[in-house]
Amino acid sequence: MPLPFPAAQVGARFGKRNYPPNPYHKGIDYPLRAGTPVPAAAAGTVIGTGHTAGFNHWVEIDHGHSLTTRYHMLGTVQVARGQKVAEGQTIGTVGPKFGVSTGEHLHFELHDKTRRDPIYGTAIDPLANIGRLTPAAPASIPLTLIGDTMIRIQSPGRGIALIGAGYYRHLTTNEEVEQSGPLMEKHVNGNDRQFDLWVSMALAGRAAVTGERAAVDTTGVVEQVLAGIRATGVSVSVDVAAVAKAVNDDLIARIAG
Ligand SMILES: [Zn+2]
Predict the structure, then answer these.
(1) Could you tell me the pLDDT band of residue 250, with boundaries at 50, 70 and 90?
(2) What per-residue confidence (pLDDT) applies to 196?
(3) By the 8 A CB rule, do 195 and 154 touch?
(4) How far is the CA of 43 from the centre of ligand 1 (A)?
(5) Cα–Cα dist 31/228, whole Å
(6) pTM for the full predicted model
(7) CA 109 – ligand 1 centroid, Å
(8) Which residues lie below 8 Å from residue 197, measured CB to CB, with a gap of 6+?
(9) Residues 133-181: pLDDT tens digits?
(10) CATH of 7-132 among 2.70.70.10, 2.40.160.210, 3.30.950.10, 3.40.190.10
(11) What percentage of residues in the chain have a pLDDT greater than 90?
């Protein structure tokens, strides 16, 4: 649950309150001793820091999906604008009693930048909405580039994918496309029909491997894939023996497993 501190420690809650200087509380308060390290609620990018009358030092972190968190009443700030922070990373410390505040505390806000409430602006109740700050996504699985055994294919309607004998992976992020850079020289552009043909031929190799659990003519499968690509007029240079060996190794591993 990506709150900076447990909900049970919250003192003043979000919303209307009987406190004339500031009757509409745009965040939640954690009574904490000055000097307490303040963690980032979730991974993100620091989009602002500053010092404002009434807020003491403050930090704002962008978490994507139009959501930001703000940390007010800080005594020190340990991050800089533009810096990426991890969930739980210390961004500063709670400051001493400041201005009209009633005591040492952290004031924490959650903002949905698409909202425009006449009173609260973009601030939303952290306790009710903190679940929208999803935990950091698991790191994407690094691509394994097996030298000569893979080809990168692309078509206008299908995007970019890596194929090999018995292997298919659609590249969905810029990061994955960058990681596949070493395969640029084996990059093939085609239309959507050709893309589908290449994929089906690559996966036909996999079906033979996983379905029949029998020896397959791996060299033949590789040559089928290559023939399909060459039929489009594209010249590709691939070590057929190396690909066939990779498929055989895969077959052996699957049967053994
Ligand atoms: Zn507050």
Answers:
(1) low
(2) 77
(3) yes
(4) 22
(5) 68
(6) 0.54
(7) 8
(8) 228
(9) 875 444 444 555 555 567 788 888 888 888 876 677 778 777 777 777 7
(10) 2.70.70.10
(11) 41
* β-bridge pairing 67-77 and 15-16: unpaired
Distance 51 CA to ligand 1 centre (A): 15
Ligand 1 geometric centre to CA of 14 (Å): 8
* Cα–ligand 1 centroid distance for 157 (angstroms): 50
Distance, CA 6 to ligand 1 centroid (Å)? Answer: 16
What is the distance in A from the centroid of ligand 1 to the CA of 107? 4
Ligand 1 centroid to Cα of residue 136, in Å, is 26
From 75-84, 85-94, 197-206, the region with the lowest mean pLDDT? 197-206
Ligand 1 centroid to Cα of residue 101, in Å, is 8
CA 153–ligand 1 middle distance (angstroms): 54
Domain spans of the chain, in order of start: 7-132, 147-256
Tell me how far the alpha carbon of residue 18 lies from the centroid of ligand 1, in angstroms: 13
